[in-house]
User: Fold this.
Amino acid sequence: MKMLTPILSVFLLGMTFCARGNEAISELHVYPPALRLCSAKARQRVVVQAMQSDGITRELAPGALCVLANTNIARLANGMLYPVANGQTELRVSFAGQTIVAPVTVTNATVQPPVSFRLDVMPVFTKAGCNSGACHGTSRGKDGFHLSLFGFDPEGDYFRLTREQIGRRVNLAIPQESLIVQKGLGAVQHTGGVRFATNSDLCQTLVRWLAAGANNDPTNVARLEGIDIFPKTAVLEGSNVQQHFIVQARYSDGTERDVTPLAVFLSNNEIVARVSDQGAVTAGQRGEAFIQARFGEFNVGAQIIVIPKGLQYQWPDVPAYNYIDKAVYAKLKRLRLLPSDVCDDSTFLRRASLDIIGQLPEAEAVTNFCQDTNPHKREHLVDQLLDRKEFADLWVMKWAELLEIRSRDNEVYPKAVLLYYEWLRDQIETNVPLDRIVQQLLTASGSTLRDPAANYYQVEPDTLKLAENTAQVFLGMRIQCAQCHNHPFDRWTLNDYYGFAAFFAQIGRKPGDDPRETVIFDRHDGEVTHPVTKKVMPPKFLGGEVPKLNGESRRAVLARWLTAPDNPYFARNVANMIWAQFLGRGIIEPVDDVRISNPASNPELLDALATKLVAYKFDFKKLVRDICTSRTYQLSPIPNDTNADDERNFSHAEIRRIRAEVLLDCISQVTQTQDKFPGLPRGARAVDIADGNTSTYFLTTFGRASRGSVCSCEVKIDPNLSQALHLLNGSTVQNKLERGGVIKKLLKDGMSKDAIIRELYERCYSRPPTPDELTKLDGFFTPASQPQQVLNDVFWALLNSKEFVFNH
Amino acid sequence: MKHPARKPAATMGQGLLERFTPTAAATFLSCLIGSLLGASAQGQTKINYNDHLQPLIEANCAKCHNPDKKKADLDLTSFQGALKGSGSGVIVVSGNLDGSKLWKALTHAEEPFMPPNRPKLADKDLDVFKQWILDGLLENAGAKAIAAAKPGLDLALNPQELARPEGPPPMPKQLPLEPVVHTARGGAILGLAASPWAPLLAVAGQKQVLLFHADTLELLGILPFEEGQPVDLKFSRNGKLLLASGGRGARSGRVVLWNVITGERLMTVGQEYDTVLAADIRPDQSMVALGGPNRLVKLFSTRTGELVQKIKKHTDWVTAVAFSPNGQVLATADRNGGISLWDPDSAQELFTLAGHKGAVTELSWRADSKLLASASEDGTVKLWDAKEGRQLKSWRAHGPGVLSVSYAPDGQLVTCGRDNAVTVWNGNGGKVRSLDFHGNLPLRVAFTHDSQRVFAADFAGHITVWAAVQAKPVARFDADPLPLAEQIATAQNHLKEIRSRAEQTARQIGALEAQQAQIKAELETANAVLESCRAQVAGPTTNGLPLSVLVLTNATQKVSVLAQTLAAVQTKLAKARREDDSAAAIDEAQSTLGRLQAAQLWSRIYKARETLASSKGERQKVAASLQASRQAIIDAEKQLDAARKAALDAQSQIKTAKADSAQQQPALKQLDAELQSSQARLAQWLREYQKLIQPNGDLAQKQSAH
Assistant:
């Protein structure tokens, strides 16, 4: 009976809770899912999270809900689990009629492990901020004392702490008087001020380590293998609601540890969610936030959604055209957002034409499309556009930017550039799958003139930069940080960086017969050394294993891994890049900055796209079709009450300035003029320019990629004043209007002024003028005015309008 | 471009060789001339600038170091230019490769590596440079060698120059032995110094400096350094004073001076805001120099305790400060590898000693003040000529970093470093021997006054002792004594133990003696029986003779057994007596205990004295302030007096005024009376006039007509 009472009371309490909440509880979770206490000093925070059927999560105080089956094994106090004796038991959590059980394992319950430098002391420096980039973590240290950034070099830090300035930083005889402690306490002059209190765990750990002799770890000390954050997501209703997060560390000796107090927490959006240094998140305004936790060399993240309390929300009955819509809707529902309406036919026609072929539809196509009554006309349009040659042109341009196809004096000759570009065009026009193209690039050998793909290694001769570019272009990762120190906001370490760079260590270059020619080959010799350990790094896949080479070319091994269907990054990266081309924003944005602290706004969507791309055998045209026929792509840019502030979840179309080359081509198209670019025949389009060095004032002003780097930021589509002024006063528009003589021709054809105005509107805007616009324009046609002059002005005005310059 | 430039060098080199071999006659001649001139008759033509150097210089160096371009202000294309050197001084020193910058640059021993961005010159070309320097920087075949700065001679120490001060070697007489702190774990010992004249070693402990007898290793005294952790220790030149510098990191730094003989704290110098990393006292004891993390070197007068000079030159922490034994030069060094020599009186820099590529960890002067040794984290020990300000020697003593260097009075050196080694070197930097060191990172080393012993202090707080001629250590001890009370308790226990053991031995001896006495008695009895038996047997034969014989045999046997037993007991007794050292042990234990108790008492006295001294100081201060306040009272009184006087004056003035007014009152009355009488008179006159005019109308008219 005595045993039953607490259980009964828990039950009753649960009942009352349940009665208070309006929504039924659909899921109950206890974190961590398996509780392991691995030493006498172990303690484990327990977090209980309930999810309502409406998707809102609530944190429940574990005290009353949790019951330990055997309190002789472990005990629970204030939400913390402590070891009592070795053995196994379980933690039973019951709430609102649901029960969940977490196994509890206690080992080494009486063993007090010694303070370890790597496992206990190094985290103190990270937690207290000592080794951050602004303090002693900078490459030269601060005020004469240097620690490795976020502790990537424990051996070096150990030396600097104990032996570099002997007698200054540590005092093993009187540990608490060590300078490292005194500085942290702020008891002596310290630029960094007070970092911890005397009775804090951080200080105590440090002092205990010093008192024990400040020993370095034995070589077989457990290695940190990874960390996890729990819970992974939280949907908080109302501001000031709290959710605790815990960070669990996994070690190579099989032990686990609650490192929440030692982890560093960061929120990417403090307005939506603040996070305390102990991992407690407090909800703020409506929105989305990402909580990043760092411990050792690892970073993990959790997603937070905050919605106002008591929000009335009804999901409308909108159809999902395909899997894309399903994934987008799921996210919108969680955020309590409504998608905008579908755009009208003329908007869709203009948008799809610009996005898929980089051209405006002809005036008559507008009328035909709008009058077409076929319910599948939009899909048919997409299919038609995808079959156009211009579709390939746009993608050749895109890849040419990523591959930095541009000539450089005495290094990359225009002839090689032209051949490289033609090779790329050939690949994309003949629809060679993307994985195949990438394989050809990475494994390319031979003359840069006869095997143009080999230019991949001529454009960038530096081993490290080659590795960086490869990671950024094909995997979407910027690993540059890890050249000098572990990446502060991602998982990449120096080992990862130099291991990856080792794939490019054996590329040989020699002059060919032609002075403009370089021959690329595998030297089967050459290594990359780690700058800290000075060890030769074997080639290691990013985030993967060290492959067996068996005498094969390192690049071939890399290409196979990189383009494999199960490569976790390649397909996702390519899918994201394609998505961003059509929606104006990547699911991960910027597209080439995939990292833990820059998570996908909709991971399910990204996964779905990547899976499809693999299923299509990297025939990306099929993926483009999926995207352009989705309802999400067809949404209007006009927001509704709920989604006006949304920029990340594709609840409405994004209004985008048309990129430089396409804009110039469109102006030429509507004015019926031709351009002449150096090295290209008259009439060639701007998107066909092979050499990145070829540009015009117009293109440069409108942010054409210089192809000087692989960064996605090379293409600039931000509008600015010089662009507006160039359109208004510059030579491009005015000259083209005059040279094209469109109005003159149309007048000659005997068209009425209203018909001409309609024609102009349909050419530029892909829509007829509204009656209101017609009335206003009528006002300009006075008996005194020349119709041709006025019509020319109207045409000029249209070209200068925002509706023309933007894709909406 | 580069190939044609290098070609002439090769051909010139070949030409040079060709020219040498066939002209045996010339060789002979020059040899002859050489021997006639008294130069070293090696039988070889000497390398000279015009014939041998110039072609190499033109091929390799002249592109930058020509009279027009003069990179680094160096013109190598002429003999004079090469001798003049670059912007940073001479580049070649006759007969001294180590001191020749040119050689260092060419062999890539030191930056800048020459020729730039190219591999070293071919060995045979380098040999030409080498030989030129060693042969004395000849200009041409007929030139006379520039006198070599014979480092061998220079490195020899003349013991006559080292004046031993008068009087007995200064040793502590009676110093406190009570430790300020005793810690569970030893800490790194940062300071170690040996007295220049006495068998005395000073060790920097935690908040205290310990003095040990260098021969007996007996602890002779503990000087409290409550200012924090002592970092650098120095004996004064005469060995009578001990100086300790240190403090608390990032907080405070002080230098303290003690009288070695009495342990009296003489003065505290400096008011720094970070620990004082290095300090020294000038041999004439007129000034103390100190340096630390603030990059300044400060000179204080010992007479007034005031700052007299502040030197701003070092670009990083000042890590070493040392006065030359003759007191004429002050050497300072920093964490950036810089060393400077100064004139202590004017604080003018004499020389900048450039060469170290890492932090300088210690400086040590040779006893004759001619040479300075520097140890550096760059792994080298360098010897510098203090008079000329140039490097004489440099060698890699401890690859990962040299932590300490110390000259022995006889001119040997001892070093230790991060390779966990302690090494003795001769004056030329030749390795004499490696001393076996099994501790944890030796930090400081020192030779004793007689150059007989080497001490090394380490990271874990231990001191290792060697006889300098032997690699195996003779002793190892830690510098962290227990509090005297604990030592006394241990000694008391020990004494008690010895006493109880002595008692036990005494009891054992007593028992053996009793046994001996008993056996002796028994033996006597047995002897008597034997005698009587013998008498019986020898006497007239009676009946029962065989019985008597039997008895005789028995008695004889008994006697012999007893004699044996007695011998055994006596042996035992002798052994027990021989082994009984309890009296000596008790004496020793008692004396130890007595010594400790005395030490405890003395420590109390010392402390009381120190307190007294400091309270004396306090008293003086109070007295002074009392005096001041007394003066203030006197002043105040004076002021009061003055005020009083003024008040009195004022009163008297008032009085005068009052008196005046009192005096004036009767006058007033008089005046009043006069006035009244005048008025009365006037009235009378008027009346008389009225009387006059009324009867005489004519008169009135007459008057009005007037």
Confidence is low (pLDDT under 50) at residues 1-43, 149-154 of chain B. Chain B touches chain A at residues 181, 183-188, 190, 206, 229, 231, 248-251, 273-275, 293, 317, 403, 418, 441, 443, 459-461, 480 (CB under 8 Å). The radius of gyration of chain B is 49 Å. The first strand of chain B starts at residue 192 and ends at 194.
